[in-house]
């Protein structure tokens, strides 16, 4: 079982990122849970979602030990890093979480300049998709091309097609 938490401020596409990851898991034939949590004020308040992927039935959507944490701000690192398994993957927004911010030494930390990359792709709202691409690059959960196709399908269902969304995801997948 893989337990993921996506966390940041409302309006950053946190819940969308988790939903796309969950849909990717379903397309791979996995059992999936997606559990959102957000404050009463959507934009600017805190938002996070839990995603679980497994080949077997999942008893609870609650992620007790985090395998992958995507933190789009320092508050998210502080809130969730204590629940990470040793050796887990912590992806942080390099523009929002200072290098000096205290982070666990027993997890793999990847700093992703999501806003910078999204701006280079001329899609500032695509920072969450940059982070999703970084997940594909640093795990064996998803193929980058599969995620890119799912991103296009996800937004097409909402009538919000934007080829720059896919560019953000692909650029994020190149992050080391």
TrEMBL record:
Keywords on record: Oxidoreductase
A molecular function GO annotation: oxidoreductase activity, acting on the aldehyde or oxo group of donors
Lineage: Bacteria, Bacillati, Bacillota, Clostridia, Lachnospirales
Coiled-coil segments on the chain, per record: none
InterPro entries on file: 2-oxoglutarate_synth_KorC, Pyrv/ketoisovalerate_OxRed_cat, Pyrv_flavodox_OxRed_cen
Name of the molecule in the record: Pyruvate/ketoisovalerate oxidoreductase catalytic domain-containing protein
Pyruvate/ketoisovalerate oxidoreductase catalytic domain ranges (all copies): 10-173
């Amino acid at each position: 079982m893989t337990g993921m938490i996506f966390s940041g401020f409302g309006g950053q596409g946190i819940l969308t990122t988790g939903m796309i990851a969950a849909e990717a898991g379903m397309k791979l034939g996995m059992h999936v849970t997606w559990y959102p949590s957000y404050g009463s004020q959507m934009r600017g308040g805190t938002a996070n979602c839990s995603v679980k992927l497994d080949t077997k039935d999942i008893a609870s959507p609650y992620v007790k030990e985090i395998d992958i944490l995507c933190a789009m701000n320092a508050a998210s690192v502080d809130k969730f890093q204590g629940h990470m398994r040793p050796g887990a993957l912590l992806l942080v927004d390099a523009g929002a979480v200072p290098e000096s911010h205290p982070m666990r030494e027993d997890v793999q930390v990847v700093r992703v300049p999501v806003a910078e990359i999204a701006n280079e792709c001329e899609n500032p709202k695509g920072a969450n998709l940059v982070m999703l691409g970084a997940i594909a690059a640093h795990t064996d959960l998803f193929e980058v091309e599969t995620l890119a196709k799912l991103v296009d399908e996800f937004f097409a269902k909402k009538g919000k097609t934007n080829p720059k969304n896919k560019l953000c995801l692909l650029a994020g997948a190149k992050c080391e």
